Known about the structure:
mainly alpha, globular, 13 helices, single chain
Amino acid sequence: xSYLKTKIECLxxxxxxxxxxxxxxxxxxxxxxxxxxxxxxxxxxxxVSRMYDLRRxxxxxxxETTGYIIPTLFDYYHLSxxxxxxxxxxxxxxxxxxxxxxNGAIQAGTVNSNPKVPxxxxxxxxxxxxxxxxxxxxxxKFYNSAEKASEWLVETQDEDGAxxxxxxxxxxPGPNTYNTRTAWALLKAYSVISKEKYxxxxxxxxxxxxxxxxxxxxxxxxxxxxxDRPLLHTIAYAIRGxxxxxxxxxxxxxLELARIPADILISLQRNDGSLAGRFDSNWRPTxxxxxxxxxxxxxxIWLRLFEIFGKEKYYLAGKRxxxxxxxxxxxxxxxxxxxxxxxxxxxxxxxYGKYQYxxxxxxxxxxxxxxxxxxxxxxxx
Length: 381
């Protein structure tokens, strides 16, 4: 493609606010998988590129999100029988072990970030990948990596259950409520390593996070950039961590506390199925753009609540937001760098991942559609 044609295509991508008619989930999942494969192939080092930026091109490999892309690829393998997906998942898990720091942690930022700083949240997210890879393959290398990372998380946790040290260098300093997802990762580790201290540390963090929750379900200290107006992305992290921990620990209190914000967000779903990208402490939307990653994550939460409680409102809300996400996925473009990708924001010039297609947005989009498929079949919907 000539330089001029490339510039014209990019300009179209900048200005295109149109939506596509949603197709079958399988079609959209496959397109997003193709984009994930592309994001891995362009890095040359084996990890998954953080994003494709319309202004600057592909970014470096991102250990944090590469880690939790691994379970998504295994899920796709089991859904489709695509052996390539399984092979890529295993190779990504090996790559994560190779970039793991000596103390067991995962660094902040992309692999080319210097200095390399150990980070709590990123470490937790890669545990998801190692545990799943171990369960799928039985390879002790993945068990050892997950154990080493989990030991570091337990050692660095404060007595009240929060993590105040080793926050991400690209986020507000801790404690961060969205680390409930790190607590959930420790429960994943416990499922294969069976060290009681992992279970204890996870529960301690969830109990601390609950102290940050207002009566209306909103969480304090819960954003990468603005704790007064947290992103839907980190709101979803916090809710999901509490929800899934409640399932693992059979703790109905956790489940009910997760339902409070999930129910409020249903009432805030917009006519097109989307949600606003940020909310203040009174659940007032503070931006007009939508955080597509957060939309997909909330879809997953609603569909999980449908599985648990059987309330139809959760299924309908999840399906609506999935249809919205399918409508804004790039599936008509001839640009292979964005085909099947999911933008950070919609419109693409929104403040979250501005002008970027994020690997974790594609990951959660795939997860949401696979879960919708599972729920639909399970309940004959």
